[in-house]
Design goal:
The complex is a heterodimer. By secondary structure, chain A is an alpha+beta fold. Chain A has 15 helices and 29 strands. Chain A has a 15-stranded mixed beta sheet that branches. Chain A has a 4-stranded antiparallel beta sheet with strand order 20-19-21-24, with helices on one face. Chain A is globular and about 85 Å long. The N terminus of chain A is likely disordered. Chain B is α+β, with helices and mostly antiparallel strands. Helix content of chain B is about 55%, strand content about 10%. A 4-stranded antiparallel beta sheet of chain B has the order 2-1-4-3. The longest helix of chain B is centred in the last third of the chain and has 29 residues.
Chain lengths: ~650, ~290
C-alpha cells in the first residue's frame, strides 16, 4: 500500500510540475504593438509558451457539499458517500439517492465535501481493530476469505463478531473517539483518492455548525493541505463539552491547527439570512463587546462569504437596498434556520453581505481593522452528495427533494408556532464558487481563495473579470486580451486599490462572458458602498455595461429592462436578447478620496426558466400560487476596497 | 384517511399514549431493580482525551466532572429510551443503522490490494474509461458575430485570405477580435475545451489538419480560425500511467460489489411475503 501511495504521489508531482498538466497559455498580446510583434517573432506560433503569470480561466466548484456522513443528510435518506460526491463532481454518471441516474452537464473543477463535524460518521472501530483480529486463527480465516474474493461474507462475519464483542461493558476506549476519528480519516481518504492534480481538486474540509437557538452561524473550514496534516487533528465541533458554538473558539482551533501542523485553513461563513441578525455583529458577539482582537481575528480566518446557495441569496435585501431593482432575489427572510424565531426587519442589516461590507468600513474606522473584508463565493449546501445546481438538472437540497412529481408542492419546513413556513419551491438551484487560480491544485485554488480572487454564481458558469486601478482608459476595453491589461494596470477582485494619486478617481476594467452553454448577459453593474462624511454607510448601484442600445432613463438613470424570451409552457428561452459578452471601463463619478469605499461587480443574465418551470414541464401539474418560475442568474465578484491614506 | 394517518399531531398523540403505557408498565414491576453504570477509568480517560483534542489542553477538575455527568446522563437516557423501545420504527435510527452496516461491509471488503493482473484486466476490458484524453495546442483568430453583424460574411472572407497569405513573422492576431480568455492554448484536454468553448468545439478541432490556418469553426461565442500546432489523440495508457485511476475504479467496484453480495447473503436469511395491494394504490407507487 505504501508503495502505491508513493507511485501516486510521484504521478501527482509530475502533474504539478507540468509534465502532463493541461496548460492554458496566456495570449501573446501585450501593451504596445511593437512589443506584441517582438513577442510573436519569438514565439513563432508553433510553440506557444506555456508559462503565464496570471490566471487565464476561472475554476468552478462547490465549497459546501454534504453527504450521508452528515447526520442530518443521512437521516433524510441520503446514502451517497464522499466518494460518490467526488465521482459525480468529476463528471461521472452515478445513481442518486432516489435511484435516478444523474450526471452534470460538464464536470466541476473542484469540490469540498463539508460534512457537519458534530456527529460526523457512524463508523465503529473496525478498521483499527483489525490487526488484532488478524492475529488470531479466526482473523486469519477472514483474511483468507477476503483474499479469495469472499469479502462480503467475511465482512458480515467480522461485523457480527465485532458487535458482539463490543456491545458489553469492556469498551475500554469508547468507540466514540476512534469511531469519530475513523469517520474523519475516511472523509480525508475519499478526498485523497479523488484529488487529481491538474484535473480535479478534491479538498479536505468540514462544516462547523453553530446553530444555537436555530440561528445559523455556520462556517465551512477548508484545508490547503493533504491528509498527512489534516489527519493530525479532528474537526472542531459545536456540542459542549467538546465543542463550542462561539466562532471565537473555532478561530482558536484554526490557529492551533496551523501551529501544530504548519498547515493552512480558512473559513467560509454562510446563510447570514438565517442567522436572525447574528452573522455580522457590529456591537457585541456572544455577550462580549467587539474589540480589536475580535475584528482582526475574524478578518484573518474568514476570508470568504458564501453569498448564495440553496437556502436563499444573501447578497442584499430589498429592505436594505430599496433602490436596487435586482435586490429581491431568491429571498429567504421569514425566520432563522429552523423557523423557531420569525424575522424582524431590524435583524436584516446584520445578515446580508452588502450591509456587512458597509458596516465593516465603520468598524475599521473605529477599531482599526475591517472584520468584514471578505470575498464572495456561491455554493450548494446540498445534503445529497450531488452538486447539481443547474436549473434544468437540479437534484434538490435534501434526498426527498430529488426530482419527482411531488416536490413542486411539498413543504420544506413548517413551524406552526411562529408561522414560519417554507415550501420546497423556494429552494434555490444555487450556486457555485468561481476561483481565478493559475492551476487546478489544492494549493493554487486555496491560495486564490485566501487572496479572495473569487466570485459567486447562482449556478451559471459565466466568466467574470473585475479589475480596479487609477488609470484604466476606455481603450483598454478594446484590447485583444483585456486580462493582461487588467493585471498590468490594476488589481483583481479581492484586492486593495492603494492610495489615490492626486486628483484621480478609481477606474475599473470590467468584463463578462456568458456561460458557453448558458444564457446571454443583461448587464454588468458595479455596487459601490462607502462611508460618508458623517460616518454613515451609503450604497449605490451603477450600470456599467449592458446589451443592445438601451439608454438609461433621463430622469431616473435606470436602464430599461432587457425583456424576456422565457416560454414557461415549454420551459425554454432564446439568446435573441442580451449579449454573449460585456466589457467596459468605468470611472467612479462620485469619488471622494477622503472616504472609505468598496466596489464589487454584479453580472445579471437574461431571464431563464427556473427549476420549477422545468419540473412543471416534465412532471406536469400546476405549481402552487406564487411559485417563482423564472430566474435571472447572476454573479457577485469579491470587492475591491479603497482606504484613504492616513 | 391517509391524510389523517400522516398528520404529525396524531403521531404525537399516539406516541405519547404509547410512551405513557410503556413507561407505566416498565416502572410498575421494576421499582426494586437497580442497574449498574460503571464509568470505568478508561472511559474517564477517553472523555478527558476527547476534551483535550478539541481544546488543546487538559480539562479542569470541574470540567471533567461535567464531562462525566454528561456521559452519565446520556447513558441513562440511552438505556431508558431503549427499554421503552423508542428506537423501533424510528426512520432516522433505522437509516443510521443501515448506513453503519453498509459502511462496515464495504470497508471490510475493500481492504484487499489488487494484483497487477487484475488491474490490467480492468484496463483491457474498458479501455475507453482509462484512455488519455485528446489534447490540442492551437492559436485562434476570433470573429465576434456581434461586432460584424452586417458584414460577417465579408469579414470572414477577408480574414481567411489574410491568414492564408500571412508573411513570415507577421502577427496573425491582428485579425482577431477581442476574446476574454486566451488566444493560444497548449495541450488542453478535449473535455476542458468543451467547458471553455461549448460542446462540439473539440470535435471540430479533431477534423482539422495541423499547421495551417483552417476554419472558421464555431463555438458558443462566435467563429474561430484555428491553427493547430499539435494534436495528441489520446493513446491507450500503460498500466503504470493508468494505475491511480485503475486503483480508484477497482476500489469503487469492490465497494459496490461487497455491498451487493453482503445484502444477498443477508437476504437469504429472510423469507419475504409482500401482500398484494389493490389496483389503485399500486398505481400510486413511484
Amino acid at each position: 500500500m505504501a508503495h502505491q501511495h508513493r507511485t501516486f504521489a510521484l504521478v501527482s508531482t509530475l502533474v504539478i510540475l507540468g509534465v502532463a498538466a493541461p496548460a492554458l497559455a496566456d495570449d501573446t498580446g501585450s501593451l504596445t504593438p511593437e512589443k506584441a510583434e517582438a513577442v510573436f517573432k519569438k514565439a513563432a506560433n508553433y510553440s506557444p509558451y506555456a508559462d503565464r503569470d496570471f490566471p487565464t480561466r476561472p475554476f468552478f466548484g462547490d465549497t459546501h457539499l454534504h453527504t450521508a456522513v452528515s447526520f442530518d443528510a443521512g437521516a433524510f435518506g441520503a446514502h451517497l458517500t464522499p466518494r460518490d460526491a467526488y465521482r459525480f463532481a468529476r463528471g461521472e454518471q452515478i445513481t442518486s439517492n432516489s435511484g435516478q441516474p444523474v450526471k452534470l452537464s460538464r464536470p466541476l473543477d473542484f469540490l469540498v465535501v463539508a460534512d457537519h463535524s458534530d456527529n460526523m460518521g457512524f463508523f465503529p472501530d473496525l478498521v483499527s481493530g483489525k490487526p488484532e483480529l488478524l492475529a488470531d486463527p479466526t482473523g486469519r480465516r477472514w483474511y483468507d476469505m477476503i483474499q479469495s474474493g469472499k469479502g462480503a461474507a467475511a465482512a458480515l462475519e467480522i461485523i457480527t463478531a465485532f458487535s458482539h464483542a463490543a456491545f458489553p461493558k469492556d469498551l475500554v476506549y469508547s468507540p466514540g473517539t476512534r469511531a469519530y476519528h475513523n469517520a474523519w480519516l475516511d472523509t480525508i481518504g475519499a478526498a485523497e483518492q479523488y484529488n487529481d492534480a491538474g484535473r480535479f481538486t478534491a479538498f479536505i474540509g468540514y462544516e462547523w455548525t453553530s446553530n444555537t437557538g436555530g440561528n445559523n452561524l455556520h462556517r465551512n473550514v477548508i484545508f490547503r493541505d493533504n491528509g498527512d496534516k489534516a489527519s493530525q487533528v479532528e474537526p472542531f465541533t459545536v456540542m459542549p463539552p467538546f465543542g463550542s458554538d462561539n466562532p471565537v473558539d473555532l478561530w482558536k482551533w484554526m490557529e492551533n491547527y496551523e501551529k501544530k501542523t504548519g498547515g493552512s485553513v480558512l473559513a467560509i461563513s454562510h446563510n447570514g439570512n438565517l442567522s436572525n441578525g447574528l452573522m455580522f455583529p457590529t456591537v457585541e458577539a456572544f455577550g462580549k463587546k467587539l474589540d480589536r482582537e475580535y475584528v482582526a481575528t475574524r478578518a484573518k480566518w474568514e476570508r470568504l462569504y458564501e453569498a448564495t446557495q440553496t437556502k436563499g441569496d444573501s447578497e442584499t435585501h430589498p429592505f436594505l437596498s430599496p433602490n436596487d431593482e435586482f435586490a429581491n432575489f431568491e429571498r429567504w427572510d421569514k425566520g432563522n434556520l429552523d423557523g423557531s424565531v420569525a424575522k424582524k426587519k431590524e435583524m436584516l442589516e446584520f445578515e446580508y453581505a452588502r450591509s456587512a461590507l458597509k458596516n465593516g468600513l465603520k468598524l475599521e474606522q473605529t477599531l482599526g481593522v475591517n472584520p468584514y473584508k471578505f470575498g464572495m463565493v456561491g455554493s450548494s449546501d446540498a445534503h445529497t452528495g450531488l452538486a447539481a445546481m443547474e436549473e434544468e438538472n437540479f437534484f434538490g437540497k435534501t434526498a426527498p427533494q430529488e426530482p419527482g412529481p411531488r416536490r413542486l408542492a411539498s413543504t420544506f419546513f413548517d413551524n406552526p408556532q411562529t408561522g414560519v413556513k417554507v415550501m420546497d419551491w423556494e429552494v434555490s438551484a444555487s450556486g457555485y464558487a468561481a476561483v481565478w487560480a493559475k492551476e487546478n491544485t489544492r494549493a493554487s485554488l486555496w491560495d486564490a481563495m485566501e487572496r479572495k480572487e473569487t466570485y459567486a454564481t447562482t449556478g451559471s458558469r459565466m466568466i467574470v473579470r473585475f479589475f480596479g486601478g487609477w488609470d484604466f482608459a476606455p481603450g483598454d476595453a478594446d484590447n485583444r486580451l483585456p486580462a493582461r491589461i487588467g493585471y498590468t494596470k490594476g488589481v483583481p477582485m479581492g484586492s486593495d486599490l492603494g492610495s489615490a494619486p492626486q486628483g484621480q478617481a478609481p477606474t475599473f476594467l470590467v468584463a463578462a462572458l456568458k456561460d458557453p452553454i448558458g444564457a446571454n448577459l443583461d448587464r454588468y453593474q458595479i455596487v459601490k458602498g462607502w462611508l460618508d462624511k458623517n460616518g454613515n454607510a451609503q450604497e449605490k448601484v451603477y450600470d456599467v455595461a449592458w446589451s443592445g442600445d438601451r439608454k438609461p432613463d433621463a430622469n431616473t438613470g435606470k436602464l430599461p429592462s432587457v425583456g424576456t424570451t422565457v416560454d414557461l409552457v415549454n420551459a425554454t428561452w432564446a439568446n435573441t436578447i442580451g449579449a454573449p459578452e460585456l466589457i467596459s471601463v468605468w470611472k467612479d463619478p462620485d469619488f471622494d478620496p477622503a472616504l472609505r469605499a468598496f466596489y464589487y461587480g454584479r453580472v445579471i443574465e437574461i431571464p431563464t426558466p427556473r427549476w420549477t418551470a422545468y419540473d412543471a414541464k416534465r412532471f406536469g401539474g400546476t405549481p402552487l400560487p406564487g411559485t417563482a418560475m423564472t430566474v435571472t442568474e447572476r454573479a457577485y465578484t469579491s470587492p475591491i476596497w479603497y482606504t484613504p491614506a492616513k | 384517511m391517509r391524510r389523517i394517518l400522516s398528520e404529525p399531531l396524531l403521531h404525537f398523540v399516539v406516541l405519547g399514549a404509547l410512551l405513557f403505557a410503556t413507561y407505566a408498565g416498565v416502572s410498575k414491576g421494576n421499582d426494586a431493580s437497580v442497574q449498574d453504570i460503571i464509568v470505568s477509568r478508561g472511559r474517564v480517560a477517553h472523555l478527558a482525551g476527547m476534551f483535550s483534542r478539541s481544546w488543546r489542553r487538559e480539562p479542569s477538575r470541574d470540567e471533567l466532572n461535567e464531562l462525566v455527568n454528561d456521559y452519565l446522563r446520556e447513558e441513562i437516557f440511552y438505556r431508558e429510551a431503549k427499554t421503552m423501545g423508542l428506537e423501533n420504527d424510528d426512520p432516522v435510527i433505522r437509516r443510521r443503522l443501515r448506513q453503519k452496516l453498509e459502511f462496515l461491509e464495504e470497508n471490510s471488503a475493500a481492504q484487499r490490494t489488487p494484483t497487477d493482473d487484475e488491474l490490467n484486466n480492468l484496463l483491457q476490458s474498458e479501455p475507453e474509461l482509462f484512455r488519455k484524453e485528446s489534447r490540442y495546442s492551437f492559436l485562434h483568430v476570433f470573429l465576434d458575430p456581434d461586432r460584424h453583424r452586417d458584414n460577417l460574411f465579408d469579414r470572414q472572407a477577408s480574414v481567411r485570405k489574410a491568414l492564408a497569405n500571412l508573411n513570415e513573422g507577421a502577427d496573425p492576431l491582428q485579425w482577431s477580435d477581442r476574446f476574454l480568455l486566451s488566444h493560444s492554448f497548449v495541450e488542453v484536454p478535449a473535455d476542458e475545451l468543451s467547458r471553455i468553448f461549448g460542446e462540439d468545439f473539440s470535435a471540430q478541432l479533431a477534423r482539422l489538419p495541423v499547421a495551417s490556418w483552417e476554419g472558421p469553426i464555431r463555438s458558443a461565442y462566435g467563429l474561430h480560425f484555428v491553427r493547430l500546432t499539435s494534436r495528441d489523440q489520446g493513446q491507450p495508457p500503460s498500466l503504470d500511467e493508468a494505475r491511480p485511476a485503475l486503483l480508484r475504479e477497482w476500489n469503487e467496484r469492490q465497494r459496490v460489489k461487497a455491498n451487493q453480495e453482503a445484502f444477498a447473503l443477508m437476504r437469504k436469511r429472510y423469507r419475504v411475503v409482500i401482500e398484494q395491494t389493490d389496483e389503485a394504490s399500486r398505481g400510486d407507487r413511484p
